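Explain my protein.
***
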Amino acid sequence: MTTILVTGGTGTLGRLVTERLRAGGHEVRVLSRHTSPYAVDLRHGGAALDAAVSGVETVVHCASTPRGGDEEAAGQLVDAARRAGVGHLVYISIVGVDRVPMGYYKAKLAVERRVEDSGLGFTILRATQFHDLLVQVFGSLSKAPVLPLPAGASDQPVEVDEVAARLAELALGAPAGRVPDLGGPQVRTLESLARAYLKATGRRRPVVNIPLWGATYRAFRDGGHLAPRRAVGKVTFEEFLARQAGDDGRD
């Protein structure tokens, strides 16, 4: 039985990774800022982090936030993992972190570099955006009388449980370096995804495509965050929405 530490183990992705690993009979430690017995702020490290990684064979690093601090957290985790003799560090990143010049993406790319240079056995998986994120974005945007979208942009949402399954599989294998990206089953315009969301939630809003400016917008418009050749996910956005609504998607 393998002892595995999952950082961010109470989050959207980490919780599902934890469930899958435990279902396979593995001992899993969940690290988050507010969950005992491994309540740790990764940015600060210290004795609590050392205790969390002690005796662990594999770390799955899911903890992340767009509010900043990912690089510091990764540095503390890598140092603790080296001290503990961890054999395998698995990191979940985002498709396009090397092509989209957005602050959060730059931080994720910097973490990838820290992992690669750590001296530890490592595996890095990049995935496209989760269905859940689009629902959050569209839910926020649809509070206005119109639903504004960046003109010309597309997305390739993926089911988070499919990413969790892949991460769990990678955690149980040998370090593999950077593995092929995991993309959702369809590259769709944001407008088509937004209209699917409005239909599923019974909301009526005009959808307005707004041309924007700047390098980040151009990178998204040009598909820097997409992986059309790695459209290996199975669950479509409509299927996800139907499941959320408690429907099986049949008429």
The CA atoms of residues 106 and 142 lie 29 Å apart. DSSP finds nine helices and ten strands in the chain.
